[in-house]
Amino acid sequence: MAPPPPSPPSPPSSTPTYNIAMVSDFFFPQPGGVESHIYQLSTKLMDRGHKVIIITHSYEDRTGVRYLTNGLKVYYVPFMVLYRSATFPSVFSFFPVFRNIVLREKIDIVHGHASLSSLCHEAILHARTMGLRTVFTDHSLFGFADAASIMTNKLLKFTLSDVDHVICVSHTCKENTVLRASLDPLMVSVIPNAVVAENFKPPSNPAETSRGHAFGQPAPPARQLGPHDTITIVVISRLFYNKGTDLLTAAIPRILENHPNTRFIIAGSGPKAIDLEQMIEQNVLQDRVEMLGPIRHEEVRDVMVRGHIYLHPSLTEAFGTVIVEAASCGLYVVCTQVGGIPEVLPSHMTVFAKPEEEDLVAATGKAIAALRANKVRTELFHEQVKSMYSWTNVALRTERVYNGISGAISDAEFYGYDASLNAANWSATRGRSGVQSFALIDRLKRYYGCGIWAGKLFCLCVIIDYLIFLCLEILFPRDKIDTCRDWPRKTLNEEKEPGVR
Amino acid sequence: MLTTPPHLYIRRPSPTTAEFTVTTCPPLTIPLRLALLALLTLRITVVLSVIIALYAQFASPPPPPPPNRTTTTTILSHLSTASLLDALLALQTSPPGQSITRLASALPASVLALACAGLLYAGLLLRLHTTESVLVLRGLGIQIQTSSHTAGAGGSARFIPTAKIQDVLINEAFKGFEVRYYLVVVVEGEEDVVVVFPRLLPGRRIVEAVWRGVRGCLYEPGEGGRKDGGVER
């Protein structure tokens, strides 16, 4: 008798680990907020012992399967690119490849990102057809009135009719998403973005670096600002209408007029750059307004530390990672009170303004006055931001969502109430264990409620998708698909993560 | 029954030589041999029927057989064109031949030509099994062989000397609706890598076995398969 083969080593922690596929149209090499969110979240989830792969579409020079340095596997699926790296909605053509990837990687949870990514919507639809758990993260706010928004909202409603859980980056974003997709607010969680605080350190003074940075060390000395020192106001944003560039164009001459020892640094590019340049020409402000043009994300910190105030005139913003980055660099933040921005930073770091020229000028004036009076301890901001925002914390909270939808933690714990006691809250959307049922008829019921015509159309799509799934099971049987070797998993070590709150 | 999923044979004639063959041909057992023989007969029949059909359609009207031909037959005269034509005519006038003739005359000429071309390709040229192999000779290099789709053509072979081999590795790529594993040889000074087993693209188990075997055979065991040591030597 041969001894039984040793069983594969199981992770020492009691928490279950998952195989997670992040799906989005937006990923590196393209730069952007969603891209870095996906990367950071995946990295931290892998640190917690999960297996994470990323599925995105191919870029010009990047097709196929790639590994990033930490073992993060990225599938760049070849597709036709429609516009600004959003793929053509090829609803069903993605299914065979998607199924193959999901089976070979033994995926349990499909996590889609960004409501403008059609790849993500398709993946969620197919994943539900295949009987997988799905999570969707919304990164943006949308209107309700114009034609494009209505279309996007309808599409969102389609996908989110049958998703296990939704994550939003701010409470405003949650409100917006719940309204747009008619969701049960209980199935929407808020998990904010985070910043890598190490990448956004304030300018270091030599005395401090020589002393080293130890716990319990007295706070860094305050930066004293004389009454005639120049105050630099930094603006880093893509120069689009929704980022409030028009507001900025109107406000800059008035701010500079009211406050003699101030100057502006503006980084970023976009269609509104020409307006800014015209304003500079007209008011002859070349020596007080510096336009840097487009900069890379790595350079953002170097630009930020040149200033004292960060001005963020955006008209709509789901979260506004950039103001967290600015605060982390030790800048006093002046921003418009729109979208999710008021939730992001504590009030002592920010001066809020209504999104109007008058108010923005006044708020900036207030910020300049406060800095001149040395009333703001900006040098403390970095440590405070560092303790508020960390990706490890984001990963921890996301993991809780995964536990909730896969039934590892009970309903009462996950949703904060006991579903069995609240029989009135039972609906077609929620099955026995608080997670959504996979039965085709239940799924159809959910889709049918989407609208008079849309409901029927969506049902048709779902039925076709299901038929394609059955065909694929026959054409490409599961046992013929090679399973992948896993990258060596990390084991979770709680002692090593003192920063987790 | 006649083919199997790709499977691997390993031959090691000497410690420094190894041949890895991936083929869809199952082991030659008696029933398989019989089946292959039956298949051969079927192919011959198909080809003959095609010839009859073509002859009946395009060489018509068939001349009436000469009533009384003095036949002094030798073996050589059997091989003459006239006697071959006679044999063909005899076949055509036989009952199965006549039914083929009727079928051929019922079809339009273009359809018939296409059908005949297809059947001839299947009967004469198509190869049933695909065999691909890689031969590793330590100190010399790697030879990659692939059988061709059709009989007659010899297939292709490519020899890569050891000095040119930068690395042998397994990669993944999108192929059709799938993601497949494949074994590649990175050749120095070439833009593209050379894929081993390009037609069969066997599964992960086979590819990994071959990868281990190739690296173990190509480089000295002491070097642990390090690519630098293997290439410099």
Please give a handful of descriptors for the protein shown:
heterodimer; A: 501 residues; alpha/beta; Rossmann fold; 2 domains; eight-stranded mixed sheet; six-stranded parallel sheet; 16 strands; 15% strand; disordered N terminus; disordered C terminus; B: 233 residues; alpha+beta; PH-domain like; three-stranded antiparallel sheet; 7 helices; 41% helix; 25% strand; elongated
Layout of secondary structure:
The complex is a heterodimer of chains A (501) and B (233).
Chain A: E1 19-23, H1 33-47, E2 51-57, E3 64-67, E4 73-77, E5 81-83, E6 86-87, H2 95-105, E7 109-113, H3 118-129, E8 133-138, H4 147-160, E9 165-168, H5 171-181, E10 188-190, H6 206-211, E11 231-236, H7 245-258, E12 262-267, H8 273-283, E13 289-293, H9 300-304, E14 309-312, H10 321-328, E15 332-336, H11 341-344, E16 350-353, H12 357-372, H13 381-388, H14 391-405, H15 411-415, H16 440-448, H17 452-475
Parallel strand pairs in A: 1-2, 1-7, 2-4, 7-8, 8-9, 9-10, 11-12, 11-14, 12-13, 14-15, 15-16
Antiparallel strand pairs in A: 3-4, 5-6
Helix pairs in contact in A: 1-14, 7-8, 7-12, 16-17
Chain B: E1 7-14, E2 17-23, H1 30-58, H2 75-78, H3 81-93, H4 95-106, H5 109-125, E3 131-137, E4 141-146, E5 156-161, E6 165-175, E7 178-187, E8 194-196, H6 204-218, H7 227-232
Antiparallel strand pairs in B: 1-2, 2-3, 3-4, 4-5, 6-7, 7-8
Helix pairs in contact in B: 1-3, 1-4, 1-5
